Hints:
Two copies of one chain form a homodimer.
Chain A: H1 6-10, E1 26-28, H2 39-49, H3 62-72, E2 79-82, H4 85-96, E3 102-107, H5 112-120, E4 123-128, H6 137-145, E5 149-153, H7 165-171, E6 177-181, E7 205-210, E8 223-226, H8 229-238, H9 246-257, H10 259-282, E9 286-287, E10 294-298, H11 304-313, E11 316-326, E12 329-337, H12 341-354
Parallel strand pairs in A: 1-11, 3-4, 3-5, 5-6, 6-7
Antiparallel strand pairs in A: 2-8, 7-8, 9-10, 10-12, 11-12
Helix pairs in contact in A: 2-9, 3-9, 4-5, 4-8
Amino acid sequence: MSLFRPNIDKMQGYVPGEQPREKDWIKLNTNENPYSHSPRVAEAIEKAARSRLNIYPDPLVRAFSEEAAKQFNVDPDWILPANGSDENLTILVRSFVDTNEVISYAYPSYVLYESLAEIQGCECQRLLLNSDWSWDLDRVRPEIERTKLLFVPNPNSPSGTLWDDATLTSLIPPNGIMVLDEAYGDFRSMRDKGGILKGEHGSRIVITRTLSKSYSLAGIRFGFAVAHPDLIAGMRKVKDSYNCNTLSIAAATAALMDQEWMLKNVKQIQLTRERLTLALRLLGFEVQDSETNFVWATHPDRNHEELYQELKARRILVRYMKFPGTITGLLTGLRITVGTDAEIDTFLEKLKEIL
Amino acid sequence: MSLFRPNIDKMQGYVPGEQPREKDWIKLNTNENPYSHSPRVAEAIEKAARSRLNIYPDPLVRAFSEEAAKQFNVDPDWILPANGSDENLTILVRSFVDTNEVISYAYPSYVLYESLAEIQGCECQRLLLNSDWSWDLDRVRPEIERTKLLFVPNPNSPSGTLWDDATLTSLIPPNGIMVLDEAYGDFRSMRDKGGILKGEHGSRIVITRTLSKSYSLAGIRFGFAVAHPDLIAGMRKVKDSYNCNTLSIAAATAALMDQEWMLKNVKQIQLTRERLTLALRLLGFEVQDSETNFVWATHPDRNHEELYQELKARRILVRYMKFPGTITGLLTGLRITVGTDAEIDTFLEKLKEIL
């Protein structure tokens, strides 16, 4: 007899993208930044390595919160640092959703939201996007009305597309919270500093951000939420007391202080992204204009899973994705992270061979 | 109108021990190790600082799990690394306890368990210990019979006392899991390697360990659970995919590989502990024989809160603790971390002044 909760027994568990330990793979599957972190981050970690690690870190993570607050023109009590953005998503579910309440999320998007609902033991609704990744507000309104927590990644994954503030505001559940998962926010063509939080319904919006992508720091697990202090204060009760560690706090704070480094890498990724998009289109793929560090490519005639396998046989990993039950039925495609120019050249070369 | 779950609105949130940022306090309040971490840990972090932090860490944390497995003479699939032992306690609650089920814990002990039950939204029972910190098994048996998850810190806090394996085995809930929270396990006079897990009911026991105390690494947030692989596999579904980071994994793995450093500090703390215990007794305190890195001291005539305040005014922090509703009613006392010999000398000197 299992002693686990029935919902835990039943669930499969979220499967993250493959993470081979060998270094000779071209990894275009988990949207990591191909460029290294700022040397100032390395220095901050080295200094922390010789500091008082025998003492607990600051439970309020004030040093980081002050820097992040500056980025969003808010006070530090609008910021909740976390052990990766994933932890903030978990905290949000545990803060707002009882087992008889409903989580909704844009579909197709980040399927982790579904795993979080399964763990919490609550219902999860997929709000179906149109095939061009736009919203049909009239169609989803009844579902939004019964939603307690709505997850909207913006820009979205796997599409790489963006929704404007007016659309997003119209999605806020009348009796719930909307989470804007801005993991890829720094890759937008037009930067955004959370202006939507200052609007009429801003106190029912939580923005989540990560340092994994734009700051090249997937390895340190650091994200943060930005929201009205009343929301942050409640979420703080749910988090573990010391959820961020001395080393990652030092690294994350130094990373935010070196905007130049991050912006330079983002600029390069944007350039490579445009080149990749064009090249894929010339090879016969349909590719969304991307506002992120990856592109979503579908081919009208080829089997996406086979393409993924053929690439993998050549030690190139992309993400083969499969979304059953979209507005047009089963949707498959390849999500390809924007690597370095050299990696993308190799990828395109091998892809041509395969095609 | 609040949108938080009612249990979150209602709860106060766990309040960790005070963490002043200034370095001129004598901190004897949060059971931190007064000695620094191993130089090999610092080297491992420095190396990691220059490694590929742009890549996600190993979600299975295999490097660390292999080292931890050796310590307990088990296979690596018996190990679940976590972002501090606190995270494993949270994972345990989310894995095993539905909102209509019951958490129980030894009382007085670590009141965080109560906060975890509040967050989950389930009932929490205090299993009252005898005034000498022993168990009255006949008295608590009906409560244990309805328990899904039982938390027993061993050695216990604030008492510093230990229960033997026979007593612990008799506490296992017939329809639930027992968690042995061994945060202070390395400070025991007789080392223990989880032999209880190999016993008849071992597959219903989870041991949790931390590197915060004995390894002087409260700052890196690293703990791990040891349990039958079936339990670990289910708990893994509940954790965030990448719950440990590249820096802390490097630090924690290096720490386990330098047993000599840890054991040397533990030995010193044990010696200072005996001296502190004796000195407090000579000052009129009742002090439990401790198997941890702190002592529990009560004074028959003095007000404990006033003693705490008087010490704080002299920039010495100890933990004033207050447990309502114990077997003898309200219990108060001082939990004093074993610091360096110099810190303990100053503490004793100031305490004499106050008395």
